[in-house]
Design a protein that fits this description.
Elements: E1 4-6, E2 16-17, E3 27-29, H1 35-38, E4 44-48, E5 55-60, H2 82-85, E6 89-92, E7 95-99, E8 105-106, E9 111-112, H3 122-150, E10 154-156, E11 159-161, E12 169-171, E13 175-177, H4 179-183, H5 187-196, H6 198-208, H7 211-227
Antiparallel strand pairs: 1-7, 2-8, 2-9, 3-5, 4-5, 6-7, 10-13, 11-12
């Protein structure tokens, strides 16, 4: 059961946060403000919330739940999405709330949340920035997605990955921007998307899909290593 507590320097002076849990995350939500930072490293795709059916964006880091193919020694070597940075932390009515039972909090190792003088540590400042980015970015991203949907730019993407062990994997429930639909837009619609900054995001997302091949290659090489 989660143990929710309002973040407090005196109560949580010894609490330490770790990134070790990244190795079990195969997908993380991102906001539009992160697209350009994430696109050089991850496939960015859209999916739907299982409960609401609303679209949201995320980065794919593995092809199977519970396995991140991009971590090295348990850590991501490149851009770390805000959704990972804030693991174990949430925004409450009165401030930042922590879930003491979340695996982001380490019994040993990790980084302290507060300096010896009680001020926020570098680790906590990263969390605060991530929470602020998500809080502002989620409604902004929802608006971008609604504009994409209004122009019928999102389409399902069929992802079937074949491996040397003969067992293909199919990734379902994922969507991408259709460049064909984008290029067929009337000039006025394209100009509107450009002025909103949506065109840049659409091309960044569509171009990032190529990283799915990287994930397949990494998994295939690990299968070969395991079988050697």
């Amino acid at each position: 059961m989660p143990i929710w507590e309002l973040l407090d320097q005196s109560r949580h002076a010894d609490l330490r946060v770790t990134r070790a849990g990244d190795s079990t995350r195969h997908f993380a939500q991102i906001v539009a403000d992160e697209f350009l930072q994430a696109a050089p490293y991850y496939p960015i795709l859209f999916t739907k919330h299982p409960e609401t059916g609303a679209f949201y964006a995320g980065v794919v880091m593995g092809v199977e739940p519970g396995r991140n193919l991009l971590t090295t020694d348990g850590l991501l070597p490149d851009y770390r999405p805000a959704d990972l940075e804030r693991q174990g932390f949430f925004v409450g009515d009165d401030g930042i709330v922590v879930d003491r039972e979340h695996p982001a909090f380490a019994q040993t190792g990790g980084q302290a949340l507060f300096e010896s003088d009680g001020t926020p540590s570098v680790a906590l400042k990263r969390v605060q920035h991530a929470l602020q980015r998500l809080q502002a970015g989620i409604p902004a991203t929802d608006a971008v997605i609604q504009r994409f949907l209004a122009h019928r730019l999102l389409e399902p993407i069929d992802v079937t990955l074949n491996f040397d062990d003969g067992k293909p994997l199919r990734l379902e429930g994922l969507y991408t921007v259709s460049l064909d639909a984008l290029h067929a837009l009337p000039d006025a619609a394209a100009l509107e998307l450009f002025r909103n900054g949506d065109l840049q995001l659409a091309y960044a997302q569509a171009g990032s899909v190529r990283h799915l091949r990287t994930l397949a290659r990494i998994r295939n090489s690990r299968l070969a290593e395991a079988g050697a």
